Amino acid sequence: MHVVQIVVNGLLLGGVFALSALGFNIIFGVMRVVNLAHGDIVVLAAMTCAFAFGSLGLNPLLVLPVTVIAGFLAGAAIHGLLLRRLPGEIASAEASSLTLTFGLSFFLAGSGLAIFGGTFRSVPYLTGAFQVAGISVPQAKLLAFVAALVLALLLGLFLRFTVLGCAIRATSQHVEGALACGIDIDRVKTLSFGLGTAVAAAAGTLMSMIYNLSPQMGVEFTVNAFTVVVIGGLGNYAGCVLGAIVLGLADELTSYYVGANLSEAAPYVLFILVSLLRPSGLLGRKTT
Amino acid sequence: MKRFVLAAALLALVVLVLAPLRLNGYFVNLIYITMVYVGLAYGWNIISGYAGYFSFGQITFFGVGAYATGFLMNGLHWYWMLAALVGGIVALLFAYPLGFVMLRLRGPFFAMGMFGMAQTVRVLITATPATGAGSGLYLPPGSDVTSVYYWTLAVVLGAIALTLWIDGSAFGLRLQALREDEQVAGTLAVNVTREKIVAFMMSALIAGLIGGGFIYFLNYIEPDAAFSSRLDLQSVVMTILGGVGTVWGPLIGGVVMTQIAEALWARYPQGYLIAFGGLLVALLILLPRGIVPAVMARFGTADE
Known about the structure:
Distance between the termini of chain B: 16 Å
Oligomer: heterodimer
Shape of chain B: globular
Structural class of chain B: mainly alpha
Largest sheet of chain B: 2 strands, antiparallel
Number of helices of chain B: 14
Distance between the termini of chain A: 45 Å
Structural class of chain A: mainly alpha
Order of helices and strands of chain B: HHHHHEHHHHEHHHHH
Radius of gyration of chain B: 19 Å
Shape of chain A: globular
Strand order of the largest sheet of chain B: 1-2
Strand content of chain A: under 5%
Largest interface: A-B, 46 and 50 residues
Number of helices of chain A: 12
Helix content of chain B: over 70%
Strand order of the largest sheet of chain A: 1-2
Number of strands of chain A: 2
């Protein structure tokens, strides 16, 4: 395969990774919670879309709003009913919320297995490819890429220009400061968690068009999003896009040059390396 | 109260020692599996409970111990207990460089990094023909449940003794100090790097010794079983149910949960994931400190 072709594939993949990681990053930015159930929400949305396409013949772009709304409600419920009620810390500061989302991840994976079974599913929609100067651009990947970029842009505009978006950014910058400005922190957190999972659900719906997925694969997408966010810098939304492109390229390159056997470990190795070498991200500021 | 507990513990010990002689195979297997989980929970409790480094990949050392034991038995034809002992030591030695690197990570980075480490080792072994790859590593035929049973009993008793010592020692206090605040502990002349690596190696030793017995018990091991994230989840749930960072928490939590885990996993894998995942969430909200501290508070017999 041509190197340019691999790079194009990596870039297209990066778009969807970026959307998924944005959802993860909003939740971390506002709440300092690493949501280990993130990937399971991505995969559940993908399975829902594949099921709707396979059994009901629904267009994935029509399913998208449904999974996004469901994702928002689920996320708001997870925060409102569970995370908000965590009584305190066990052992160390972040351990409580981390362990809770770890449990939630298995819970969602089990639920996905019970509902959809263990088989791999995808959406065979737009299976053709454009040929541009000897490079083939699969239509489904292009559509997912464009849709992911549009959604990421909408999210960016929302965070930048709406009152609620400002409240979210203020809370992620300084909780006490935001509180002093009259922001209802609790409500912002619930909304942000809902927003983060809604974005994850959108990413999952788009991923069903380019990946063959099963309900047990959630953890791979969690690591994926975590890695992207670490590369881009925790809480840094622009860095997310850069991180996603790096990861998309790494993913395509390793599966081509190293082989599918070993490339399964690539996201984990990359995560460990980036966490060790650049804990504040490629664009991140040094924090103490 | 204290005398009663001591008598109960002695009685339990006598029952455990005599069990393989009197009980039928089903119960011996059940007790063995319970001890495996309890042992893994004790291992997890040292690095995550006492030192506060929540790891979602301690199973790495279980797998390393199991594979090392298998190699020693197949390649050098060692007696299995000697192989398993050295397998545990291999896990301990592996934890030294690994801890040196991984323990630089904190909180969610360490937890997820260790998860990734377990997966990476699993993928590497699956891709290596010399380890039997995905189909697993087979031992020479012939296994003896009774000897594995006593081996694992000894490891669990050793893990309890080690935890008892940690709980009352200056080393344990240093671990708890770095758990509460690593920087402050550092300024109080606690060599945080050394202490947490030692705790990490202790955790690894216990998991490795248990893994060495496990491969002999099954007579083979495959990468998916040796580095299973399900076993990690189980250690976490059991320890939190019993009480994180307590001496008896892993024992109580492990004994209670193993029966449920075994019944569910064999018949309803999805149900198992739902039940254990959901239970972990519920525990964190309803009983975050676990059974042991709750009982201590009720009867007014605090540790100190």
